[in-house]
Structures are given as structure tokens and as C-alpha cells.
Amino acid sequence: MDRLIYTAMTGASQALEQQSVVANNLANVSTTGFRAQLANFRAVPMSFGDGSSVNDETTRTFVLSATPGSDMTPGAISRTGNPLDIAIQGSGFMAVQTADGNEAYTRAGNLHVDQNGQLVTAANQQVIGSGGPIGVPPGSAVTIGKDGTVSAIAPGSPADAIAVIDQIKFVNPDAGALTRGDDGLFRTADGNPADADPTVQIATESLEGSNVNPVAAMVSMITNARQFQMQTKLLSNADQNEQSANQLLNFS
Question: Which domain range does residue 132 map to?
Fold first, then answer.
């Protein structure tokens, strides 16, 4: 079978994979604190033979998609007035506890207190403080300071009777030391919790938006669709060439 079929097939399949990455980014254009996933193509030389002969061909390449990481460019910060909303300014992440009890990191600062009195994210992941997940007294008025300090005023208490509950854990590891999970959370590559970084700055009563550029994402979707069409056209041409060659052999 013509080797064009294999090269075109890899181009078509990888165009579809890259399209799924772009589609996921576009679907999260309004997700709080979302970090766009990066994707690109890379060419891998394809050798026909075992590599021991000078006649081995290396004139074609396979196409592979690579996801080198995430775009860590900060998103736009907008003020909401909600005392439980926080936005990380610059680099850094907030530590949360996943369902399996491990520590992960996010930029989504739209927090709330659940029915169990735990400070959680919009996805109901418990926010981690200096002593583990942060719990607040039932019915308390909760505020978050610029350093991540969580304070509460018990029901019926005067406005100056503020009790410090805990301090949110913020981390700032190198981007290369983090891996992105299917749940959108980041984790350290070695699985160990990152050290707290007191220099991480936050904006209170504010949220950071997604850093996805919807216009650029739409252009990428159109480009990937055209690349896929081109590769499928090559597959069709290769098939037609094979059929024509078979007919010539039958007549000979």
C-alpha cells in the first residue's frame, strides 16, 4: 500500500487530537482561573527498513501532536464584591484537597462554605490551610484577607469580635514542575506537596477570568479543520491511485 496513506493518516489523526485540545480551551473561555492548554505538531522522521542499509528511506515523516504544558499567562481580574472571592495576582496557585485526599493546585478562587462548614471551591474541593482543610463555625460571617487569612465573626457577635481561623496555603512552584490532570487541577510531578509561598499576592472580593483568547481559539479550530480536510483528501487520492494501479495490472 502507498506509504502516503500512513503519513496522511497520522496527519489526520493528530489534527483531530489538537482540535480536541482547542475545543476544550474554547469551552472553558468563561471558567474562573482556567489555564489554556498548549498544543502543537511535531514531525518525526519515518525510516523504512531496519536502519542498517544505506538504501533505507527517510524521505517521509510521521506527524505527532505534543502538549508541552499550559499557558500560565494571568487572566483578567474583575471585582465581584463577594467576600469569599479571591484572585491570585501574578504567579502562584491555591492548594486544595482532592477526593482521594491528595493535594492539588488551582487558580479558581470562587469559594464558598459548604453544608459541613468547610471552605471549598466551586468544584467542592476543600481549601487547604496551614493545618489542613479549613473549617469555619456554622453561620459565621467569613472574610478573607489579602494574605489569605480566613477570619470569621460568630452569629450575634459585635463587628470587632473577629476570630482568625486559618490562612490559605498558596504555592508558587516552577511551571515545569507541575502536571495538569484531567480534572483541570495541577499537581507536582513527583506527587509531593509543594512548599507554601508567603509572597503570593491575592486580590480580595475579585475573581480571575480564563486566559483563553476566544478569537485565537476559533482561528485554531478553523486551521485544524482545514488541515484535517487536506489530510483526508490525500487519503482519498492515495486510494484512487491504488485503484488505478490495480486496473492497469489487470489489463497487463
Answer: 77-208
Burial class (CB in 10 A: 0-12, 13-18, 19+), 193: middle
Q: What is the 3 state secondary structure string of 115-183? A: CCCEEECCCCCEEEECCEECECCCCCEEEECCCCEEEEECCCCCCCCCEEEEEECEECCCHHHEEECCC
**88 and 208 Cβ atoms separated by less than 8 Å:** yes
List the helix and strand counts (H, then E) for the chain: 2, 18
pLDDT for position 150: 94
- Residue 46, helix vs strand vs coil: strand
Same domain, 238 and 140: no
Residue 110: how many other CB atoms lie within 10 Å: 18
Calpha distance 63→41 (Å, rounded): 7
**For residue range 87-129, what is the model confidence (pLDDT) as tens digits?**
999 999 999 999 888 999 999 999 999 999 999 999 999 999 9
My answer on whether 127 and 199 are in the same domain is yes
